[in-house]
Write a structure and sequence with these properties.
The protein has 5 helices and 8 strands, in the order ββααβββαβαββα. An 8-stranded mixed sheet has the order 1-2-3-4-5-6-8-7, sandwiched between helices. The radius of gyration is 16 Å and the shape is globular. The chain is an alpha+beta fold. Helix 3 links the parallel strand 5 and strand 6.
């Protein structure tokens, strides 16, 4: 796999633009991040204050420099507003795999297909541009909404890692693991209606 961390990756459809997360996104995403304190209740990191959001964005940008994560902001072109953030994570060029995750989207866009459109753009890039063989998804076992969204995208459940991730409140979460292989994406892509 040839994931290029130095490239400014822009992923775009008729309705969405995913672009590299930047310091400017503190202001761009502040309304989304602070509108609902429980938006990231199942995430190890919180963003519900300007300080927490600034820290989250700073850490995500540093992870890009460290070549372990590539974070994006999500801009909804139809509504002309920022809708949230998503990332490529745990990127391993040697193993031809990466994870799609750290996705959080304003609740007003839940159930609208926006997440599915994001995943389509990310999967297309992962398999056809970066050359991934395997894409992974991980989420808190308790996060039923996220699990259903991953399954709706075509993620295949592989198992649960017990007490896998330490949460912001000290709780050790069980992590559900899903995958899509390139061959599986080839088969499901024609029916992946946007």
């Amino acid at each position: 796999m040839q994931f290029n961390f130095d490239q400014d990756i822009l992923l775009e459809s008729e309705h969405l633009l995913l672009r590299p997360l930047s310091v400017a996104d503190i202001e761009n995403l502040l309304g989304v991040a602070t509108a609902d304190k429980s938006l990231l209740q199942f995430s190890p990191k919180q963003v519900y204050t300007k300080e927490l959001l600034s820290e989250y964005i700073s850490e995500a940008m540093l992870a890009r420099v460290a070549k372990t994560r590539y974070p994006f902001s999500i801009f909804n072109k139809t509504s002309n507003c920022y809708a949230g953030s998503t990332s490529f994570l745990n990127i391993s060029n040697a193993d031809d795999r990466l994870e799609i995750g750290a996705t959080w989207i304003d609740r007003s866009f839940h159930g609208t297909g926006l997440n599915r459109q994001c995943k389509f753009l990310l999967l297309q890039y992962a398999f056809y541009e970066a050359g991934a063989h395997r894409v992974e998804f991980r989420t808190d076992e308790r996060n039923i909404r996220s699990r259903k969204a991953i399954e709706k995208t075509g993620g295949v459940f592989e198992g649960i890692l017990k007490e896998h991730t330490l949460m912001y409140d000290g709780f050790r979460r069980n992590t559900c693991c899903y995958r899509i292989l390139k061959s599986e994406w080839e088969q499901m892509k024609p029916s992946f209606i946007l």
